[in-house]
Design goal:
This protein has 65 residues and is α+β, with helices and mostly antiparallel strands. The protein is 38% helix and 14% strand. It has a single domain (8-62), classed as Factor Xa Inhibitor (Irregular). The chain has a 3-stranded antiparallel beta sheet with strand order 1-2-3. It is elongated.
């Protein structure tokens, strides 16, 4: 069986941490930020985590699991 190729679209958007969690970046951060309140902008700055079965799928697509 050949090696699985990394899906570049997923690799550009997500990263696997050292502990094996899948880290992602938030959407809606590129424009029209004047409309959003400070609390929302502050939350969007930090990366989020992908949970459950979706995280397992993303790891497989990244070639990490």
């Amino acid at each position: 069986m050949p090696k699985a190729k990394t899906k570049k679209s997923v690799a550009a958007r997500m990263k696997v941490t050292k502990s094996g969690k899948v880290k992602r970046w938030h959407a809606k951060t590129s424009h029209m930020m004047v409309r959003r309140d400070r609390k929302m902008k502050r939350k969007l700055r930090k990366p989020g985590l992908v949970h459950g079965a979706i995280a397992r799928t993303m790891k497989r697509l990244l070639g990490k699991g």
